[in-house]
Design goal:
Layout lengths: L2 H4 L2 E10 L2 E6 L10 E2 L2 E3 L6 H13 L2 E15 L2 E14 L9 E5 L1 H4 L9 H8 L8
Parallel strand pairs: 1-6
Antiparallel strand pairs: 1-2, 1-4, 2-3, 2-7, 5-6
Length: 139
C-alpha cells in the first residue's frame, strides 16, 4: 500500500475568542459528522502552513479576517472512515463579524458551556483543558 494512503488528513481548528467566549460551529445535517459541534476550520492543502490554512478556511466559512493566530497543540483521532491530525490554533483577534457562509449554525459559548454541547470527540479533551481554570487559556 502507498504510504500516503495511510497518512491522516491534516486539519486546522480555530479556537476563536471574543470576550471570554469561543465560537462553536454546528456541522449541517447531511454532511459527514452532521449534527456535531466543532471548532471552525478545515483541511490543510498541500504546501500550506497551518496558519495560512486556518486564515483561508475562516475567510471562506465565516467571512472573518484573523489578525492574531497562535498555534497551541495537535492531536490525532481515528474515526471509522479514517484518521485526522488536528492542529488547534487560538485566534484572539479578527476583523469582521462571523457569518455562517456554509449553512452551519454558530454560537458564542464559554468553555464550560461547550462541554454540555455535542462536540466532536477529538474536541472534548481540548474543551476540558480550556475549561480548566488552571490552564491559563483565558482570552
Amino acid at each position: 500500500m502507498h504510504p500516503a494512503l495511510n497518512r491522516p488528513l491534516e486539519v486546522v481548528a480555530g479556537i476563536i475568542w471574543q470576550k471570554g467566549r469561543l465560537l462553536a460551529a454546528l456541522r449541517p445535517i447531511g454532511k459527514p459528522l452532521g449534527g456535531f459541534w466543532e471548532f471552525p476550520g478545515g483541511k490543510v492543502e498541500a504546501g500550506e502552513s497551518m496558519e495560512k490554512a486556518l486564515i483561508r478556511e475562516l475567510r471562506e466559512e465565516l467571512s472573518i479576517e484573523p489578525q492574531t493566530v497562535s498555534y497551541w497543540k495537535s492531536l490525532g483521532h481515528t474515526y471509522p472512515h479514517g484518521s485526522v491530525l488536528l492542529h488547534f490554533l487560538h485566534v484572539t483577534s479578527f476583523k469582521g463579524e462571523a457569518k455562517a457562509l456554509e449553512n452551519q449554525s454558530l454560537k458564542w459559548v464559554y468553555p464550560l458551556e461547550a462541554l454540555q454541547m455535542n462536540f466532536l470527540p477529538p474536541d472534548l479533551p481540548i474543551l476540558r483543558e480550556l475549561a480548566d481554570k488552571n490552564t491559563g487559556c483565558k482570552y
